[in-house]
Amino acid sequence: MTSVLGMMNPNLINGRNLHKGSSIFVKVEEIKKRGQWRFSIKEKSLKMPQATSSSTTEPKTTEFNTMTYEDKMLTNYVPVYVMLQLGVITNDNVLENEENLKKQLKKLKESQVDGVMVDVWWGIVESKGPKQYQWSAYRNLFAIVQSFGLKLQAIMSFHRCGGNIGDDVNIPIPKWVLEIGDSNPDIFYTNKSGNRNKECLSLSVDNLSLFRGRTAVEMYRDYMKSFRENMEDFISSGVIIDIEVGLGPAGELRYPSYSETQGWVFPGIGEFQCYDKYLRSDYEEEVRRIGHPEWKLPENAGEYNNVPEQTEFFEYSNGTYLKEEGKFFLSWYSRKLLLHGDQILDEANKVFLGCKLKIAAKVSGIHWWYKTESHAAELTAGYYNLKTRDGYRAIAKMMGRHHAILNFTCLEMKNTEQPVKAKSGPQELVQQVLSSGWREGIEVAGENALPRFDRNGYNQIILNARPNGINQDGKPRMFGFTYLRLSDKLLSEPNFSTFKTFLKRMHANQEYCSEPERYNHELFPLERSRNDESLEKFMVETEPVDPFPWLEETDMSIRPFESVLSLLQSTFLRKKS
């Protein structure tokens, strides 16, 4: 369905020319009737007298409406950011290829991108030793971003780069932390076979003073405090507008259940990651507390590349996940993840309290096996989500208490693009998670999971950014979108022309807007986290709720050959001039 509002000429309505200096303005009210859009046009002037039959009658006046067509369209504006290369700062803490980066940022700015996102790697900044932070390369990078008038989203990346889909560089966590792991490997996530995953620290050590007198959470807190102190000028000047807090592998709030370094291949179900001595001890204490000391951590959940029906735990009709023992384990496993996210976001909130920026956290889009009863791949990652149980509402509630944005992935994917054997449901998953966030009254942002350069991928993103299309209230609407990622391929033609058309559509066919308050994104000082509800209450609110309504297709799609024709036209005009 194509929205008339998205195509309407704001300067010509019913034959009347409504230029900016005119005293007549248009109030566009969209009304859905029989599936079609219609508009009422209200002509208003500044107290213009109306002719009457009696001189004793007061002249009729009408109110003056100052909301323009552009203002209304801006309520549908979704800012777009581009993720910089993973290795833009090298392992040696050097900004490499500075001149080439400037050329790329210049092209992005000319395309009307709103800003960029960058990983701020723990393994680079604190590599020399505890609290020996080195920020100079990142300050140099941020100054360059600022010089191009771009906004910046900074990720506190407490994980290793390398081993995840799309990773093309290797940046480990700090060497001195890895050395502690040499003598105590239980600081890392561990599967049932005893294999350690050194991508990030296990949530089991969040509150254990194993790191030269500090806990893991204290290390994360100190890192963020140092970042704020050293980047105060970029924060106060409004360059840094968003701090995404890393909460696990790939920076996501999840367990590293599907890691290519462990031999996982899509669409394997993955493995539970709770077999280090600390989590094992915690679970044993919990089952003793409830009077079931005989319950053990799962040994029947298969291996990384199994399918659900190959395992006793995820078996369709009588799997362990359906029994009391399995339900208790899954509740405990997902609860530990929620507590982990809650504690670190609370520290982030305290660190950036009063700053005019947003904090955010990312949830992974685990879409494979979504259309099975057990949702096995989600369960091994820590998302206790079933057809009969909403596993994302508690996460949205937890983020809401810290005023955090929920950032979700796989927005570009359609079900028909996935292999049938994976029983994927990316479209339904996106609808479920985004709706959970909106229902809890929090802001929701998103990313693409894999690089896309085609109109089909972009159109799916536009649809998910505005599920009900262009409308007067601009709701529901994603808070922002980050494209993964900057590359020569993105900037080459015809890819870049298609990307620029995508930007225009995300901006509701408006030019780049440098005043976020005009599209309701004004930044206010970050407020302190709320503690009015307990996490235990969040955990029991699992009743599935229907997602928000979604159009089948976006009302602002990129049409076939549109970008190519635009490229040809601009090339012709350049040659002519």
TrEMBL record:
PROSITE patterns: BETA_AMYLASE_2 (PS00679)
Catalytic activity: Hydrolysis of (1->4)-alpha-D-glucosidic linkages in polysaccharides so as to remove successive maltose units from the non-reducing ends of the chains
Active site, renumbered: E252 (proton donor), E447 (proton acceptor)
InterPro entries tied to this protein: Glyco_hydro_14, Glyco_hydro_14_CS
Single GO MF annotation: beta-amylase activity
Catalytic activity, EC: 3.2.1.2
Pfam families: Glyco_hydro_14
Any one Gene Ontology BP term: polysaccharide catabolic process
Keywords of the record: Carbohydrate metabolism, Glycosidase, Hydrolase, Polysaccharide degradation
UniProt-annotated binding residues for substrate: D119, H159, D167, K362, H367, T409, N448, A449, R485
Family indicated by similarity: Belongs to the glycosyl hydrolase 14 family.
Protein name (record): Beta-amylase
